[in-house]
Amino acid sequence: MTTQQMDIFLRLSESLNFRKVAEELYTTQPTISRQLRLMEEEWGFPLFVRNNKEVRLTPEGVIMTEYVKKSLNLLAEGHQKVKMQKDGISGKIRIGIPESMDSGGTVMTAISDFSERYADVEINLKKCSFSELRERLSGDELDLVFTLEFDLKNYRGIVCDILDTAVSGFIAAKNYPVTKYHEITGKAFSGETFILPAETDSPGRKEDLYMIFDRLGISGEHIIYAPSTEAVMIKVRAGQGIACSDTSAAAVHDTESFRFYPFPEDLRNVSILYVWKKSNLNPVLALLSNFLIEYSL
């Protein structure tokens, strides 16, 4: 069915006059009749009673009049939104980023560049723990979140793409004992205390850490937990242990307070991802995700 057929049906339902509708649309009465017949065949019921004396709506036609009007109004609204997008889209987008993320890194730069290009879009930015990012996205409180590769397994019903790659490694307070060493070795880091975010915040991190220990020959370690990544970095700064981090985190760039040890090449890279729900139809979200695809190229 086409919008032209829907328009013919509505005009005819109002005037009940084939000749008048044909004149209004600069066509012939047989053309109007043919388009109406195609609609009736598609829907499976008659829309009008037609004889030599009168033209009137059937009960089915009366019902469909209301819904065809609504359909055309929705289509007109959609066309208007598309036009607004071409002319300079406006709207809102709610974005979540990890609480530990560096304000001068790729993510914030991308958001800033998007805001500069689309000045009429209102951006609401929220810094959250990993668990809050997942919960707020799932609960439709956020349209899009940035996260790291290791937490992707904890999301459901999402679409994602890679924005950038960060370098991961261990981080310690600058005055922590291991900082007398220039690189990670099994001997230097064995027997140390390592700090992880709680399982409720970022499930699976303990297994990831043990994989790193096996690869680096670290043993005899002691693991403690903090409620979130932000809380982990507070403990690290206080000299209570070592943590995993990466170059997307603000602390890694605070060389006055911390020492960062990049992992070997095969463990080093971690993807910075942007994630959104498949069911989210916010037009600004589509605009942002397309912008980020171009941005990452």
UniProtKB/TrEMBL annotation:
Cross-referenced Pfam families: HTH_1, LysR_substrate
Organism domain of life: Bacteria
Keywords noted in UniProt: DNA-binding, Transcription, Transcription regulation
Keyword Transcription part of the UniProt annotation: yes
PROSITE patterns: HTH_LYSR (PS50931)
PANTHER family linked to this entry: HCA OPERON TRANSCRIPTIONAL ACTIVATOR HCAR, TRANSCRIPTIONAL DUAL REGULATOR HCAR-RELATED
Family according to the record: Belongs to the LysR transcriptional regulatory family.
Coiled-coil segments: none
Domain HTH lysR-type: 1-58
Keyword Transcription regulation included in the entry's annotation: yes
Protein name (Swiss-Prot/TrEMBL): LysR family transcriptional regulator
